[in-house]
Write a structure and sequence with these properties.
By secondary structure, the protein is an all-alpha fold. The chain has a domain of 180 residues. The protein is built from 7 helices and 2 strands; from the N terminus they run ββααααααα. Strands 1-2 form a two-stranded antiparallel sheet. Strand 1 and strand 2 form a beta hairpin. The radius of gyration is 35 Å and the shape is rod-shaped.
Length: 268
């Protein structure tokens, strides 16, 4: 078991998001049943009114109860697919939000430490000549050297603080990038599976319509009702709106850190 930059335990399975499933098969028994349903409805000519376009559940429109049911079945399967995929990345999304908090806090800490480092003044002549109670016998050069060393230690401490927070910030940003990539990959896989489900139901609708129209034309070979029939107004199933863009991720806080990192060796 390993831990990410946020300190969360991660197993081998945690590193892999749910993979896309193979394209859904459309085997001949179901194909035959769909064609038979179309022929059956075409023979009795249900002539169901076209679906209300204002109804979001039948947005694609239909010309029969079978097509409307096919559309509703797709909507239910797609919704279930979305909820399962969303639940599978819930923990990663929580870690992603925590990474954003950590990045913001680290940015603020780096800026504050950098401000204190830049605000640290060089020792004045008066400060270099300042003597402690036990420094009376020491020469001016020795006293000045001690004051410079004290100043350098303060500066090195601030430099170390800036460096420490900068390293933390880099770690949090790496963690954010990894989590964001996993969440987006999970979304892309879910969107791909939604597309394959939609393709299957569109193929089923196509087979059904061919059987329906074949029976309808056989019954009314020269009747204008064939071209004006509601089933002719069938529109393909539209891709769900959620597949257009990933809404599971968050924006990473931006900010440049440019505090001067002066090493103790350079100070000397």
């Amino acid at each position: 078991m390993t831990r990410d930059a946020l300190g969360h335990a991660r197993t081998m399975s945690d590193r892999h998001v749910r993979k896309p499933e193979p394209s859904l098969p459309y085997r001949w028994p179901r194909r035959w049943l769909d064609a038979w349903a179309g022929k059956r409805d075409g023979r009795i000519d249900l002539a169901m009114p076209a679906a209300d376009a204002a109804d979001p559940a039948t947005e694609s429109g239909s010309g029969s109860a079978w097509l409307s049911n096919n559309l509703h079945t797709f909507a239910n399967r797609d919704r279930r697919e979305y909820l399962v995929a969303e639940a599978s990345v819930a923990e990663r999304r929580a870690c992603l939000e925590q990474a954003v908090v950590n990045i913001r806090e680290s940015l603020d800490a780096v800026r504050r430490a950098g401000d204190r480092l830049r605000a640290l003044p060089d020792p004045t002549e008066e400060e270099l000549c300042r003597r402690g109670p036990a420094e009376g016998p020491d020469s001016d050069d020795v006293v000045a050297a001690r004051r410079r060393l004290e100043h350098m230690r303060k500066r090195v401490k601030l430099v170390a603080e800036v460096s420490s927070w900068t390293d933390r910030l880099a770690g949090y940003r790496r963690a954010f990038a990894e989590l964001d990539a996993e969440v987006r990959t999970a979304f892309d896989n879910a969107a791909a599976r939604s597309g394959w489900i939609r393709e299957l139901h569109e193929r089923r609708a196509s087979v059904y319509r061919r059987g329906y129209l074949r029976a309808l034309r056989r019954r009314f070979p020269d009747s204008p009702v064939t071209s004006a029939h509601p089933i002719m107004a069938y529109r393909t199933i539209q891709a769900p709106a959620w597949t257009a863009a990933c809404t599971w991720s968050v924006e990473s806080p931006t900010g440049e850190v440019g505090a001067p990192l002066v090493s103790a060796r350079e100070e000397r």
